[in-house]
Write a structure and sequence with these properties.
The protein is an alpha+beta fold and 411 residues long. The chain contains six helices and 17 strands. Strands 1-2-8-4-5 form a five-stranded antiparallel sheet. It starts with 8 loop residues before the first helix and ends with a helix. This is DUF1214 domain-containing protein.
């Protein structure tokens, strides 16, 4: 038996070759103007692409049938998507308004949990002339549930229903256009545990059909658009469309309007702001925020706005893990090497990147200030009571991080 013996051979090969051509073109985006010509950043662009190549077909094929749903982690320490927050976990499941679903799980101890039913993906971002982000993003939140709204038994176990007839508790309605569940969990203290989740379609009584040639061709097409979109849209799409991202021509300051906080953000339960930072080898950046209530998070992202190495490096902070100065100001230091400051954000050797802020439990807007200083003069630019750490204390911080992140993902 050889090529051409099956009537499916030619269309399958053509579709596969088309996907490979798209993948090749996507790789060329590693060299685009938005990605500085630093060797580490060029390599990181290809790492970003290959990480997402690894999940292209799980999203396009293995979890794609809403009649046989699966919950998929689409970010973790070795798979990132643009805009992910280091101290979040992100999961999704493809669903349909034609079906009803049952989710079983057990509450963890993470500080914040949110599950959203997402609706159709519009041709344009509502109220704008901009196309939405690449798949699996760009759809519109329809209904929303927070962790504290989920009723559980004394041991934390619960059932949650999506779609179908209205239920008195633990229920989210769907619409004919519902297409996805978007599940985010945010962690504050080290060693908080994740919420476990499993989904099934109500009435599922037969095996999932095997993929046909036609279905494989559809998956090739979806995956091709996905890898193309990943490399095309980040970071430029956020520059064009988000009020919470600063002008790349004005690095090292947060945007004037401070945050993205529209109706969709409110349904997601968040406020957001992002700063593009750019540092020479002999520079450091002091970032200040007046302390405020709520659950806020800061995380370092690379040029394609994917989170930096939060498994091994000091690249994110939350209230429980941050030392607040005596003047009630939150201060972080972005520096290429360890300055011995407790609130250090590691650049991992990159000359440029993105610092993301999220506020999840308050509508109080943050007030940001930044100061670019020479690395050799950093400590003199900080308050005298700035909390410092010894090398041994830093090593313990990094071990706590490593063990906690592995706990979040079960790895």
């Amino acid at each position: 038996m050889a090529f051409g013996d099956s009537p499916a051979d030619e269309p399958l090969r053509e579709a596969w070759h088309a996907f490979c051509d798209q993948l090749k073109a996507a790789g060329d985006k590693a060299f685009k103007e938005a990605n500085p010509a630093q060797s580490l950043l060029r390599a990181d662009a290809f790492r970003f692409l290959t990480q997402n190549l690894g999940q292209a077909f799980p999203l396009a094929l293995e979890t794609a049938d809403p009649a046989f749903p699966q919950i998929h982690y689409f970010t973790h320490p070795y798979m990132k998507l643009g805009g992910d927050v280091s101290d979040f976990t992100y999961r999704q499941a493809w669903i349909s308004g034609d079906h009803a679903y049952r989710i079983t799980g057990r509450k963890g101890t993470a500080r914040w949990f949110n599950l959203t039913v997402q609706g159709p993906k519009p041709a344009k971002i509502p109220g704008t002339q901009f196309a939405p982000l690449h798949e699996p993003f760009g759809d519109v939140p329809e209904n929303n549930l927070f962790g504290h709204q989920i009723e559980a038994d004394p041991d934390g176990f619960f059932e949650l229903f999506i779609g179908g007839p209205e239920r008195p508790k633990n229920w989210l309605p769907t619409t004919p256009g519902s297409r996805k569940l978007f599940i985010r969990e945010a962690f504050d203290k080290w060693f908080e545990t994740p919420t476990t989740l499993s989904i099934e379609r109500i009435g599922m009584d037969a095996p999932r059909p095997m993929p046909t040639p036609e279905r494989m061709i559809e998956a090739f097409e979806w995956a091709g658009l996905f890898v193309t979109g990943v490399m095309r849209d980040w970071p430029e799409h956020s520059w064009m469309t988000s009020g919470g991202v600063c002008d790349p021509e004005q690095p090292n300051v947060f945007p004037a309007d401070k945050n993205a906080n529209d109706a969709a953000d409110a349904k997601r339960g968040r406020m957001a702001a992002n700063m593009i930072w750019r540092l020479a080898p002999d520079e450091a950046l002091v970032v200040e925020m007046d302390n405020h209530d709520g659950f806020w998070l800061f995380g370092m992202n690379a040029v394609f706005v994917e989170s930096m190495d939060y498994l091994y490096r000091s690249t994110s902070f939350s209230p429980a893990r941050t030392k607040i100065d005596s003047d009630d100001v939150v201060r972080f230091v972005i520096a290429h090497d360890d300055p011995g400051v407790h609130n250090w954000l590691d650049t991992q050797g990159f000359s440029e990147g993105n610092l993301g802020y999220r506020n999840l439990m308050s509508q109080n807007p943050a007030t940001f200030r930044t100061r670019l200083v020479k690395r050799a003069e950093l400590l003199s630019a900080l308050p005298k009571d700035t909390v410092l750490v010894t090398p041994e204390e830093r090593a313990q911080q990094l071990l706590d991080r490593y063990r906690s992140i592995k706990l979040r993902f079960g790895i």
